[in-house]
């Protein structure tokens, strides 16, 4: 059973993130996805947000250094608030400000996560 996908530093880009997202939506066993350093950009960030909204097996996600931007960062934050299974997220240097500058976090019941000046608040 496949439970980890480690594609760190594979230059997937937005198209790769979209393709992976489609594949993940058909898989029910992958719990850790490492997409650090893949140049996903905003489009790839939005693709990962859409996965998090419907795919409940992921518990850990690493999106470090993907320049996803503020809009995709906000979409990921919103998706995490609705996803009840994700417990760990890393997205350092993926978006320029606010919660999207968060570092490695264990997500505490999806309510408020704070580290330094970064936070993720769910309503």
Topology:
Blueprint: E1 4-6, H1 13-24, E2 32-34, H2 41-54, E3 60-62, H3 69-82, E4 88-90, E5 105-106, E6 112-115, E7 118-121
Parallel strand pairs: 1-2, 2-3, 3-4
Antiparallel strand pairs: 4-5, 6-7
Largest sheet: 5 strands, mixed
Residue stretches low in confidence (pLDDT < 50, at least 5 long) are 96-106, 108-118
Rounded average pLDDT: 80
Kindly estimate the percentage of residues that lie in beta strands according to DSSP: 15-25%
Please state the structural category.
alpha/beta
Give me the strand/helix succession. Answer: EHEHEHEEEE
Structural Rg = 13 Å
The number of helical segments is 3
State the distance separating the first and last CA atoms.
Answer: 35 Å
- Give the overall silhouette: globular
Number of strands: 7
Order of adjacent strands in the largest pleated sheet: 1-2-3-4-5
Query: In which range does the helix fraction lie?
Result: 25-40%
Explain this structure to me?
Helix content is 33%, strand content 18%. It is of the alpha/beta class and 123 residues long. It has 3 helices and 7 strands; from the N terminus they run E-H-E-H-E-H-E-E-E-E. The termini are far apart. It is globular, with a radius of gyration of 13 Å. Helix 3 links the parallel strand 3 and strand 4. The longest helix has 14 residues, at 41-54. It has a 5-stranded mixed sheet, with no helix packed on it. A two-stranded antiparallel ribbon has the order 6-7.
